[in-house]
Specification:
By secondary structure, the chain is an alpha/beta fold. The protein folds into 2 domains: 1-97, Formyl transferase, N-terminal domain (Rossmann fold, 3-Layer(aba) Sandwich), CATH 3.40.50; 103-199, 3-Layer(aba) Sandwich (Rossmann fold). The protein is 32% helix and 23% strand. It has 6 helices and 9 strands. A 7-stranded mixed beta sheet has the order 3-2-1-4-5-6-7, covered by helices on one side. A two-stranded antiparallel sheet has the order 8-9. Helix 1 links the parallel strand 1 (2-8) and strand 2 (25-32). The longest helix is centred in the last third of the chain and has 24 residues, at 159-182. It is globular. The chain starts with a strand and ends in a 15-residue tail after the last strand. The protein binds 5-O-phosphono-beta-D-ribofuranosylamine. 5-O-phosphono-beta-D-ribofuranosylamine binds at residues 8, 10-15, 39, 83-84, 104-106, 167, 170.
């Protein structure tokens, strides 16, 4: 079974959605760069190991990333899920987990990379907004897209109301993407996109004409 770790910095609602989704995944640990992240208690409550790697205890980004990789590899993780992990990762770290590190971002990428995506979507006047699960590459929020969900932007939306509508979709699509990864259904195309292969019915399973 795929072994995964989830990296968080705060609330941890996406992490909780992953842990509760009944995925064919062994969640080996939840790791935070902040000891006060609320998500750590949620993870422990769900019986998952937690660890803290506090950046303030390391001299520089390389030292922090090296320790983080040590903790991740100590859990023998096949998959690293970033879920509100508020750290820029070094290129070496990203390369180490190439093709097996996913992130959830609260916009329809490539629009609105970076922070404050809901306020920026409102300011831009877009009528659709949403969220994206993508593989992580060295360029921020720019890796191959696995799945997206869109929501309408309403005339009276605030960043908070719009963010809440998007978050509900995040909780739906992140488990979906992790399931596809675990099922071996994510395939990189020659030109750097992601294709989701169809589910293969187990041998002997009855496939109805409706598919
Ligand atoms: C989410 O909106 C996620 O898309 C972004 O950070 C937020 C984290 O929220 N990367 P939570 O910690 O998962 O509740």
């Amino acid at each position: 079974m795929t072994r995964a770790v989830v990296l968080i910095s705060g609330r941890g609602s996406n992490m909780e959605a992953l842990l509760r989704a009944g995925l064919p995944v062994e969640f080996a640990a939840v790791i935070s760069n902040r000891a006060e992240a609320q998500g750590l208690a949620i993870a422990r409550g769900l019986g998952v190991d937690t660890a803290v790697v506090d950046a303030r205890e390391y001299a520089d980004r390389e030292a922090f990333d090296a320790r983080l990789a040590e903790v991740i590899d100590g859990h023998r993780a096949d998959l690293v899920c970033l879920a509100g992990f508020m750290r820029i990762l070094s290129e070496g770290f990203v390369e180490r987990y190439a093709g097996r590190m996913l992130n959830i971002h609260p916009s329809l990428l490539p629009l609105f990379t970076g922070l404050d995506t809901h306020a920026r979507a409102l300011a831009a006047g877009v009528k659709l907004h949403g969220c994206t699960v993508h593989f992580v590459t060295p360029e921020l929020d720019a890796g191959p897209i696995v799945v997206q969900a869109a929501v309408p932007v309403l005339d009276d939306d605030t960043p908070e109301s719009l963010g809440a509508r998007v978050l509900a979709q995040e909780h739906r699509i992140y488990p979906m993407a992790v399931r596809w990864f675990a099922e071996g259904r994510l395939e990189a195309t020659q030109d750097g996109r992601v294709r989701v292969k169809r589910a293969v019915a187990p041998a002997g399973a009855l496939v109805s004409p409706a598919g």
